[in-house]
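Researcher: Sit down with what I've pasted below and flag anything odd:
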Amino acid sequence: NMITGTSQADCAVLIVAAGTGEFEAGISKNGQTREHALLAFTLGVKQLIVGVNKMDSTEPPYSEARLEEIKKEVSSYIKKIGYNPAAVAFVPIYGWNGDNMLEVSEKMPWFKGWAVERKEGKADGKCLIEALDAILPPSRPTDKALRLPLQDVYKIGGIGTVPVGRVETGLLKPGMVVVFAPANITTEVKSVEMHHEALTEAVPGDNVGFNVKNVSVKELRRGFVAGDTKNNPPKGAA
């Protein structure tokens, strides 16, 4: 699930625990902090935010020195992976209490805010929500032909076969006749849903489930790519 979800994300928020021993465990050779940062980069998530959580459990609580220590250590590691630390916001937070999540915390008066530099320009702010708002939206190629790699295929009672995946390029609409490569199965899309809501069209970046006619679950599998039969459908390489 970590990999499935991450492969579709535009930005990752890496949560690092600031507590004594907790951070060290995460950043150790087989720790989750390292593993998740590496997975995110490997799966093509090029934007990163680091939330330094549980700032209440540092020694002393809400320690600026601890934040700087973690920032230095994590920056060094993510740089090795391929991220540019200058473009990564480090935000000290205490999630349980909401400190520096949506509003500035009074517990960390020393924190003057985060700032990032990237070729598209600079950004700065105080809270985690502002770091999320500063993410650069990737281009959504709606003008290209439909490509939708399947992530899974479900059989839903009363509905039928429902492939799911993220639209990478083009548009997916109900009524469209799609072809699944490489099996070359052609069928009509009955409906398209995202988060249990029907869509009139799905655009790149949308994670959708779509109901198809007269195709059994056994015929489709993860990795197949759906395209529009009328507009440059996916085909084998020559």
Notes: The first strand starts at residue 11 and ends at 17. The chain has two domains: 2-134, 147-228. The CA atoms of residues 13 and 229 lie 38 Å apart.
